[in-house]
Amino acid sequence: MKHLSLLIAILLFACSNREFPHPTPVLLKPAKIITQLDSIFFTNVSLFTDDERIYILSQNPAFIAATDKNFNLLWIRNEEGNGPSDLYYPEQVNVIKEKLYILDHGNQSLKQFEKKTGNFISSLKIPEPVQRFRFDLTQDEHALFTVFNSVNHENVIKVDRNGEVIKKFGTTFPERPGPNRQMKYFQLDGNGNLILIGASLPYVELLDQEGESINRFDLSKYEPIKRSLDSLEVTVGEAPRNTIPTIITDAQYKDGKLYASFTDRIGLDRTKARNLLVFRLNERDCELEAIYKFQTGTDDDNFNPKYFHVDAIDKKLYVQGLVTRYIYVFDLLDS
To answer: How would you classify the pairing of strands 53-58 and 63-68?
Structure first.
């Protein structure tokens, strides 16, 4: 009986520490490299694409521009300041129907522009301080933001078209009282569920439209993320949140897949760094199905992207390099 108990204990320990197999990294080379836009340089960018256009939002200098799919400039708005139509440290661009929505973080507002012409429509003051990483929109044009200083698990607010908060909900990674500063990326899926992604604590959680949890997935069971966590000099469950480095640096959900860039703590030889993970995600499962490594011939290859955007229509991957700030265009492979 004693030996049986010992065997069971060993098996349980082995299962809890089991590392899930991961696919072999796929090498991607850029089909195009963009270093400037019509003689205009950019730094941190956010992109959005539709059937015909690319919308490029630059933080500094602040501008929003529309190009065709070959990056030929169609229009640009570069008024910078604190006026209703001005931009000041804008963070993210999103498109719904015929409108561009811009999270103008410096002015704590949500700006609307016509996507065809760039003409200004309106500016909505965001009622609470919000994080600058992600926002999303429902089909009835209600906006969802992450709250910067939430004192409980309600770290997502839903704001109507009049700027009023109509709902608060969210989650914490891990569960414990106090401000949650780790849940930085979120997005709606095609069913109206909200996908929450931790930056320093690599969990993915799905909430339904009422804010109730559907499922939670731990990405650290996969080697690339587990390696990053194991290399930390702090205990994630005990350390103050502001001492935990960022592991997931950006994330985007598209057509049943979650794309995530991450800090690959591969060791001193940065040439082996991997750049992007692709997970198949639904309400029941979250499985790693592809790993991409970029080969641009620059120092960007050794680090996580500054930003990326998936164009599912044309099967393109737009990536901004962390070092050069170049925009790379890759052909997205079927995984």
So the answer is: antiparallel
Minimal CA–CA distance to 161: which of 129, 192, 127, 120?
A: 127
- Distance from C-alpha of 95 to C-alpha of 146, rounded to nearest angstrom: 18
What pLDDT is recorded for position 201?
79
CA distances from 42 to 76, 93, 280 (A): 13, 15, 33
In this structure, what are the phi and psi dihedrals at residue 266, rounded to the nearest 5 degrees? -80, -15
Q: Other CB atoms closer than 10 Å to residue 131's CB: what's the count?
A: 22
Separation between Cα atoms, residue 53 and residue 30, nearest integer Å: 19
Cα 306 from Cα 97, distance rounded (Å): 28
Whole-model pTM? 0.88
Give 192-219 pLDDT, tens digit per residue: 899 988 887 788 999 998 888 999 999 9
Tell the burial category of 56 from Cβ atoms under 10 Å away from its Cβ (0-12, 13-18, 19+): buried
Q: Which amino acid is at 261?
A: S
Of 335, 334, 314, the residue nearest 32 (C-alpha): 314
Please report, in angstroms and rounded to a whole number, the separation of the first and last CA atoms in the chain: 48
The pLDDT of 249-278, averaged and rounded, is 87
Give the closest residue to 299 by CA, choosing from 328, 256, 278, 257: 328
**How far apart (Å, rounded) are the C-alpha atoms in residues 180 and 159?**
20
> What are 63-85's pLDDT values in tens digits?
999 999 999 999 999 999 999 99
pLDDT band at 238 (very low <50, low <70, confident <90, very high): low
